[in-house]
Write a structure and sequence with these properties.
Length: 324
């Protein structure tokens, strides 16, 4: 197959490209290339989707599948569909579970168009994804494979979220964890999601899927990560949510955060039913394997580097002192 990946230089799009090359496909990546190169065996075409005529260099080329991982722009999605939608038999669009306004009812957020003047909040991100999904269905209805990704983990993750845990646990000692016995956890290793996306292109799988792994208790997930990465004698110290909130510890991501922890009012985000994705071929690997490979990646970056997400040793000690 000849596959066009809109991206190919960072995390998921790079993993998709590597997997498609591994499986013997002819892969063209359309990206600026500012974030790095593409995996060996793929061809990079320098494309800036912010500019008109971005795809002129690819005019006349035919593809068996297009895989679009566009994050923020409905206009980018429409431009790609205009260029390749009519002639491409299978179209993958990577969306997000952030499209849901209510995880209990599966109600979607209202669609929103691009507006550079607006602050790009998490809610706006979800609404732009809804508009992008609608654009895909309108243009290539019946050929679309829409992947509503949840937390994507594994080597190469630029967010520092999941990697915080194997990195921190590998250092041992007293480790702050949220005391949230009712909180769930879901993730998908980037390599497993990439494998499924390429498989779907090969087999012409269509439809819209919540695309993450099965739900497990958050505390069990931390235990599995600790079992794979923590030295003997490591002590997990559960801290109540009230204490974390009083100390202004952020949930999910970012500085001064306990990554992947969510207050219970947001817990539906990690309670998605993924049975349809599993039935359609998604195959998640064991969490311990992702943790070990993520730790190796973290060590390559440097365990003591400044992080985009997590607690510094000083912040963690502040929590331990307050909770004692």
């Amino acid at each position: 197959m000849k596959i066009l990946v809109l991206g190919g230089t960072v995390f998921l799009s790079k993993a998709i490209t590597a997997e498609a090359v591994r499986r013997g496909h002819d892969v063209v990546c359309a990206a600026r290339g500012a974030s790095g190169g593409v995996p060996e065996g793929a061809r990079l075409i320098a494309v800036d989707r912010n500019k008109s005529g971005a795809f002129d260099q690819l005019a006349g080329e035919q593809f068996d599948a297009v895989i679009d991982v566009s994050k923020y722009s409905v206009n980018w999605v429409r431009d790609a569909l205009e260029a390749f939608g009519r002639t491409t038999p299978h179209w993958t669009f990577v969306s997000s579970i952030s499209v849901y306004a209510d995880h209990g009812t599966n109600e979607l957020l209202p669609p929103l168009e691009d507006d550079p003047a607006e602050e790009f909040t998490a809610e706006r991100y979800g609404s732009v994804k809804v508009a992008s999904e609608n654009a895909v269905r309108e243009a290539v209805g019946g050929k679309e494979f829409i992947v509503r990704a949840g937390l994507i983990t594994g080597p190469g993750d630029p967010s520092d979220r999941f990697g915080y845990w194997p990195a921190r646990l590998s250092r041992g000692g007293r480790v702050v964890v949220p005391d949230s016995p009712d909180l769930g956890f879901q993730h998908i290793d980037v390599r497993d999601l990439a494998q499924w996306i390429v498989f779907a292109a090969e087999e012409r799988v269509t439809g819209t899927y919540d695309s993450t792994g099965p739900v497990m208790p958050f505390q069990m997930a931390i235990g599995e990560i600790a079992g794979a990465t923590a030295p003997p004698g490591t002590q997990l110290v559960p801290v109540r949510e009230e204490v974390l909130k009083e100390l202004e510890i952020n949930p999910w991501a970012g500085p001064r955060s306990l990554p992947l922890w969510l207050p219970l009012e947001w817990a539906g985000m990690v309670g998605r039913d993924v049975s349809q994705a599993l039935a359609a071929g998604l195959r998640p690997r064991p969490l311990a394997e992702t943790a070990l490979d993520s730790l190796e990646y973290e060590r390559g970056l440097g365990l003591d580097r400044p992080r985009k997400a997590g607690l510094t040793p000083e912040e963690e000690q502040e929590i331990l002192t307050a909770a004692s």
